[in-house]
Design brief:
By secondary structure, the chain is an alpha+beta fold. It has five helices and four strands; from the N terminus they run E-E-E-H-E-H-H-H-H. A hairpin with a 6-residue loop joins strand 1 and strand 2.
């Protein structure tokens, strides 16, 4: 029995050295695109802002290219607070990316914030592990709520996609077959 998955992994070339991608072939469904990004640190220099915007543009391009055929996982360090609203160009660029590709919603943002706060409180109280400890239980519940919210968001996206296909079938045959092709 083969114990390696090397034959299922392909490196995806990116023009930006701050972004690394691999594609994982999945025989049971959509392939998976794993994107690891290390965005430039916050800096007031114009060069760093341009580099940051270039990274978000590359991410936007990758998400657009692979969205219909792959499950996309983005990890790494964005180097921007995506929870608290800001007027900075960096924040606006990341939020535009997230909004364009449905990477984050208001409910998900709130659940993420609650989870982060509960984790900080748990960590500040020396990481208790007793199931009877209220801080530990609050942290576990916040994680549960975050995961639940993620599952709900995914289910809603699937339902919306299906409804779009059904609506297109009754109104526009050409759009229907285009949308149906995305699902294959």
């Amino acid at each position: 029995m083969e114990k390696t998955i090397d034959h299922k992994i392909t490196k995806v070339d990116c023009t930006n050295n701050r972004i690394q991608c691999i594609e994982i072939t999945n025989t049971c469904g959509k392939d998976i695109l794993v994107i690891c990004v290390y965005m430039p640190c916050k800096d007031n220099r114009v060069e760093k802002l341009i580099e940051f915007l270039d990274c978000t543009e590359q991410l936007h391009s990758l998400c657009s290219q692979y969205n219909n055929t792959h499950h996309i996982v983005i990890g790494g360090d964005i180097n921007e607070n995506i929870i608290d609203k800001s007027e900075s160009k960096r924040y606006e660029a990341v939020r535009a990316l997230m909004d364009d590709h449905c990477l984050h919603t208001k409910d998900l943002s709130q659940a993420s914030k609650r989870c982060k706060e509960a984790f900080g409180k748990w960590k500040g109280n020396e990481r208790p592990t007793s199931p009877n400890n209220k801080i530990y239980c609050d942290m576990k519940f916040a994680k549960y709520e975050l995961r639940k919210t993620c599952r709900i968001e995914i289910a809603m996206k699937v339902l919306n996609d299906r409804q779009e296909i059904l609506d297109a079938r009754t109104k526009h045959d050409q759009i229907f077959y285009k949308l149906l092709g995305k699902k294959k």
